[in-house]
Design goal:
alpha/beta, two-stranded antiparallel ribbon, 5-stranded parallel β-sheet, globular, AMP binding, Rossmann fold
């Protein structure tokens, strides 16, 4: 199946000069969604990236992360923007091109020593995925790898990630 044909390009979103890769068209296609989750699971299993938990990055990482966790027999943990989680949290602040942002995870979500796979819909500059990996490692977990539907190779995001396997399904 050609996943690229199911991903819509939106020019000038969220600002002029940006070409946004929209996966909502992939998600609405039942065969495309099933294929994406199955392909991810197959590649993760082939790479022997056994995880206790799949950590999905807000918000599109939730959409693909939860069914992937189910398929892998793992738990699912959301990483969110500040103020979205109801219980006590671990947090990490990280640099953006202009300013900073923050991510949070429930304090009781992960235990030291567990194995974690971090997933999101896309890797661009790698900042958010890198911050999530640091958060997971600060808790004392083993980062087994990353999974992304899309990789924007020209932005070289993977060079900002820690040394761990990276699975991507589509490259631009």
């Amino acid at each position: 199946m050609d996943l690229k044909s199911l991903i819509r390009d939106i020019p000038d979103f969220p600002k002029p000069g940006i070409l946004f890769r929209d996966i909502t068209t992939l998600l609405r296609d039942p065969e495309g969604l099933r294929y994406t989750v199955d392909l991810f699971a197959d590649q993760i299993n082939d790479a022997n990236l056994m995880a206790d938990y799949v950590v999905g990055i807000e918000s599109r990482g939730f959409i693909i992360g939860a069914p992937l966790a189910y398929k892998l027999g793992a738990g699912f943990i959301p990483v969110r923007k500040p103020g979205k989680l109801p219980a006590e949290v671990h947090s990490i602040e990280y640099a953006l091109e202009y300013g900073t942002d923050c991510l949070e995870i429930h304090k009781d979500a992960l235990q030291s020593g567990c194995r974690v796979l971090v997933v999101d819909d896309l890797i661009a500059t790698g900042g958010t995925a890198s911050a999530t990996a640091k958060l997971v490692k600060q808790i004392g977990c083993e980062l087994v790898g990353f999974g992304f539907i899309i990789e924007l190779r020209d932005l070289q995001g993977r060079k900002h990630l820690p040394d761990a396997p990276i699975i991507t399904l589509v490259e631009y």
